[in-house]
Amino acid sequence: MYENFERIPQAERQRILSVCIEEFAQKGYEQASTNAIVQQAAIPKGTLFFFFGNKKDLYLYIIDHAMTLYTQMALQTPGELPDDLFERLLYLGRERMKFALSQPQLYKLFFNAFINAPEDIQAELRKRYSAYYTPSMQMLTAGLDRSRFKPEVDVDKVIELIYLILEGILSKSVPALQQLQPAEALELVEKLFVECDDYFAMIRQGVYSE
Questions:
Q1: Closest alpha carbon to 72 in 161, 132, 22
Q2: DSSP states along 92-119
Q3: What Rg value do the Cα atoms of the chain yield, rounded?
Q4: Confidence band, pLDDT 50/70/90 cuts, at residue 173
Q5: Which of 15, 44, 172, 210 is buried most deeply by CB count within 10 Å?
C-alpha cells in the first residue's frame, strides 16, 4: 500500500516522516493538518496523498513506524533478563524510559494514539496494539521464576497491575524529563524507579510466599 513512498530515497523519506511525526505528536490526529505537513516537508499536497492515500492511512503508517522502532529497541535489550518479576519490570521500564527520552516526539505519538484515538480509527489501532502486546508480554513473562508466588495468586493479573503502575508513572513524568539535560534526566529517572520499587515492595509482600 505504501510502496510508492518506500521507493523514494531514504533521506527524503526520513525528512517527510519527521515532519509528519512532529505534526501528529503535537496536535493529535484530528487537529493535525496535511497542509502544514506539505508546507514543512516542501512537497506538493498531491504527492503526499500519492504516497499515503489519505490522512487516516498516513497516520496509521506513522503509528506503525513508531511501533517498529520501539519493538526494535526492546528486542535489542542486552544480556539475560532477571527472572524475578519485579526486577524485570524495573529493568524493562528503564529501557522504555530511555526510548521516551531519545525519541520524545515518537513516544508521545505512540503513547497518545492508544489513549486519545478517534473513534473511526480505534479498531485499526487495537489491531496494531494487539500485534505489539503479544511479543511484549512474551518478553515480560518468559523465564520468570513463578515458584516465588503464593499458589492462589494469578500471576498474569499481578503483571497487569504492575504494568499499569509503570504506565502511570511514565506518562506523568515524560513532560518533566523532556525539559531536563541528559544528566539531570537520568538522575530523575533513578528517583522515579525508587518510587516504583516502593510500590513493588508492597505488592511483593502480598503475592510472594516468602
A1: 132
A2: HHHHHHHHHHHSHHHHHHHHHHTTS--G
A3: 20
A4: confident
A5: 15
Residues contacting 196, CB < 8 A, separation 6+? 89, 90, 93, 165, 166, 169
**Dist. CA 99–CA 16, nearest whole Å:** 21
**CB-side neighbour CA atoms (13 Å) of 177:** 26
Task: Say which residues have a Cβ less than 8 Å from residue 144's Cβ, sequence separation at least 6.
Answer: 83, 84, 85, 88, 155
**Higher model confidence: residue 142 or residue 10?**
10
Check whether domain 3-61 has CATH 1.10.10.60, yes or no = yes
Spatial distance between the Cα atoms of 7 and 1, rounded to a whole number of angstroms: 12
Cβ proximity of 126 and 119 under 8 Å = no
Distances (CA, A) of 81 to 20, 89, 96, 117, 201: 35, 10, 14, 33, 20
Amino acid (1-letter code) at residue 153: V
pTM: 0.69
Nearest to 71 by CA among 146, 138, 1: 138
Average the pLDDT over 144-159 and give the result: 89
Cell numbers given for 163 = 504494568
Low-confidence winner among 9-18, 77-86, 111-120, 154-163 (lowest mean pLDDT): 111-120
Domains of the chain by residue range: 3-61, 79-207
